[in-house]
Amino acid sequence: MRMVDIIARKRNGGDLSEAEINYFITHYMNEEIPDYQVSALMMAIYYKGMSGKETALLTKAMVESGDTIDLSPIKGHKVDKHSTGGVGDKTTFIVGPLVAAAGIPVAKMSGRGLGHTGGTIDKLEAIPGFKVELTNQQFIDNVNKYKLAVVGQTGNLAPADKKLYALRDVTATVDSIPLIASSIMSKKIASGADGIVLDVKTGSGAFMKSLEDSKRLAKEMVTIGNQLGRNTVAVISDMNQPLGYEIGNANEVKEAIEVLQGKRVDDLRELAIELAAHMTLIAGIYRNYKEATDALATLLDNGKAYDAFYQFIKAQSGDTSYIEDLSKLSSATYQVEVKADEEGYIHEMEADEIGLAAMHLGAGRAKKEDKINHGVGITLKKKIADQVKKGDTLAILHSDRDDVDDVAGMVKQAYMIKTEKIHQRKMIYEVIK
């Protein structure tokens, strides 16, 4: 078998066999195939695409390139959640405890963030003492006892994905749907869950800007998951504006805890219940969607989801006094209001620009080695469909520097205000099974 023949087959629009895909992954990982040939194959895939079967086989080969997590010692049906990423996305802190409160084990491995804010692990570290590294036995014991544990990803899960992504990043082949789908699903499948619920974002603050592309990616990932023996569901959710009102690490943890304590943040609550409902349905503990959403809303309202979060943080050595008194969480030195220059209604928000503004304050990383400032961020005071008058506060910047005119300008430019009234956007566009 020769790599040049594999490249030619895909260049000509043919389907690669399991043997060909395994050959290219195995020999590339053994450094027996040069980068320039794999780059050629990635470009051929970018232009010619892959069938559902091919993408599933590529994902399987990437999973088998490294370690897989054995969750069989954990009792029950293990269900994981993955988000394709967005601005203000803190659903894990609500969904995990909510599903755990329903009696379903959530054994989650999460990463750090590169971009507008930290990842799930970075945000959890806003709670002093929280341990993101547990031994395998501690991880399993915590899930069996408390139904929830979240740890940092091991470095050897799907290493082929890491190597291929680095190459795609410098060859303009990142935004290929089969390659995106196999990248995401290889790590999820290697993580060992029995079922997977995917939160696929769409809109200005999402990786996939158009609904059509978001649907294509969702369908591709669901196909991969189901073909590889994981019951997989994708929820396509709105990211044309940030989720909730808080952006930034400690800010987002605080808002999620407030929702667990009963605060009504409508879009955040709706999405959390939606994702949790599909996780519980995959696990088979409710008969239908309505029964699931009703039961989960009750678990939020009666405090049992909050109790599950509290126990999870305590079990991983987090200082629970920061949960009991949210004012103790990291905060910034300066609070700067961004004012509206006109009146009308908020029609659009460039969510990615607001996320970028938060990164400029120090909430995220432009480079992997950047250090995150847990206390900085942005609080939104107005969102789509809200009425504003001239001089109203659109947002508050939480900063450790007093000169934030550049960031304030970015946030102000992200708002589009028109005189006509507008309806709120729907949160959930479609569910794909």
UniProtKB/TrEMBL annotation:
It comes from the Bacteria. GO terms for molecular function: pyrimidine-nucleoside phosphorylase activity. Its EC number is 2.4.2.2. Residues 345-418 form the Pyrimidine nucleoside phosphorylase C-terminal domain. InterPro entries: Glycosyl_Trfase_fam3, Glycosyl_Trfase_fam3_N_dom, Glycosyl_Trfase_fam3_N_dom_sf, Nuc_phospho_transferase, PYNP-like_C_sf, PYNP_C, Pyrmidine_PPas_bac/euk, Pyrmidine_PPase_CS. The keyword Signal does not apply. Pfam families: Glycos_trans_3N (PF02885), Glycos_transf_3 (PF00591), PYNP_C (PF07831). Its cofactor is K(+). The keyword Transferase applies. PROSITE patterns: THYMID_PHOSPHORYLASE. It catalyses: thymidine + phosphate = 2-deoxy-alpha-D-ribose 1-phosphate + thymine; 2'-deoxyuridine + phosphate = 2-deoxy-alpha-D-ribose 1-phosphate + uracil; uridine + phosphate = alpha-D-ribose 1-phosphate + uracil. Keywords: Glycosyltransferase, Transferase. Belongs to the thymidine/pyrimidine-nucleoside phosphorylase family. Homodimer. Catalyzes phosphorolysis of the pyrimidine nucleosides uridine, thymidine and 2'-deoxyuridine with the formation of the corresponding pyrimidine base and ribose-1-phosphate. This is Pyrimidine-nucleoside phosphorylase.
